[in-house]
Design goal:
Elements: E1 4-8, E2 13-19, E3 22-28, E4 31-35, E5 39-45, E6 49-58, E7 64-75, H1 78-84, E8 88-89, H2 100-120, H3 125-128, H4 132-145, H5 147-151, E9 154-166, H6 168-260, H7 264-276, H8 289-303
Antiparallel strand pairs: 1-4, 2-3, 2-5, 5-8, 6-7, 7-9
Length: 304
């Protein structure tokens, strides 16, 4: 109404209201009524912002790499930044008339690309693929050394290099080479495993043969010791049997010794007497040849 309009900014915007070419009001999250015909406003975002970047660089062996990462930046001096770059806004819509933040991002990407080129131009492809941390440090160092950026009130809090990728055809070639290396390593591992298995099997067979030989030697030694003990036992038994036989023979000789002192006639008479005392009837009598010879000899002696 009558050119006055209520203006309200975000809490993270530092607003500078100009009137007659000079700052009239300024502050963080500024709001209030402004006279739009004579007032110019600039809003500088001071919140930290993340930006994804992707830049290309050439290695020492003329291979193109794509470096992708994330950088976090912010405006550290809003009043200084408002005087160095166009942050003017439309008081009706509250939006920037230009693209100041995009311009800042483009400046940062240019610095990042320069830092990546300077860092990778001295590295080969293989070495560059593993230099993500070094690239992050190089980019931060290059940004910190850029006095123009600091003079415009802009600062970068962190830089993360997320990936370093070669060209698609180079990547396929590297993948094929790596695949071949992995396959060779797998084949070597299988060969080593088989060789180790054969070695273990051979060692097991040798141990089994050694154990069998030791068991056979122990069994043979036990058999020999058992045979020795058996021989000793047999010798002891033989001695015992011999001693028993000699004792029986001596006892028998002692028992028969009285009969050797008696005449055969007396022995025969004693036998007849013993037979007569048995009270048994005589039904038959068997006389052997020896007995008949002795009887004939006795009768011859009487006649003589």
């Amino acid at each position: 109404m009558f050119g006055f309009r209520y203006f309200k900014s975000r809490p993270t915007d530092y607003v500078v209201l100009f009137r007659g070419g000079s700052p009239h009001r300024q502050g963080l999250g500024l709001s209030g009524f402004v006279f739009t015909p004579t007032t110019v406003a600039a809003a500088v975002p001071i919140d930290a912002r993340d930006e994804i970047f992707a830049v290309e660089a050439l290695t020492a062996d003329y291979q193109t790499l794509t470096v992708q990462g994330l950088l976090t930046y912010r405006v550290t001096d809003a009043r200084l930044a408002a005087t160095r770059q166009d942050f003017s806004i439309n008081l009706i819509t509250g939006k920037h008339t230009g693209e100041p933040m995009k311009q800042i991002v483009e400046r940062l990407r240019a610095i990042v690309q320069t830092a990546c080129r300077d860092a990778l131009v001295r590295s080969t492809l293989d070495a560059a693929l593993n230099k993500a941390d070094e690239l992050s440090a190089a980019i931060i160092s290059t940004i910190a050394a850029d006095k123009k950026l600091a003079a415009d009130g802009i600062a970068v809090d962190r830089v993360l290099v997320l990936s370093v990728k070669p060209a698609p055809e180079i990547r396929k070639a590297l993948e094929a080479t790596l695949r071949e290396q992995l396959l060779r390593q797998a084949d070597a591992a299988v060969f080593d495993r088989r060789r180790a298995a054969l070695t273990d099997e051979h060692d097991i067979k040798l141990r089994d043969e050694k154990n069998k030989r030791e068991i056979a030697e122990k069994e043979l030694a036990n058999q020999q010791a058992l045979e020795v003990e058996r021989k000793k036992l047999a010798d002891a038994k033989a001695i015992t049997v011999k001693a028993e036989a000699e004792a029986d023979a001596a006892a028998l000789r002692e028992r028969l010794k009285p009969w050797s002192e008696i005449s055969p006639q007396t022995i025969a008479a004693m036998a007849v007497k013993d037979w007569a005392n048995r009270n048994e009837g005589l039904t038959s009598l068997a006389v052997g040849g020896d007995a008949l010879d002795r009887l004939a000899d006795a009768m011859a002696v009487k006649k003589g």
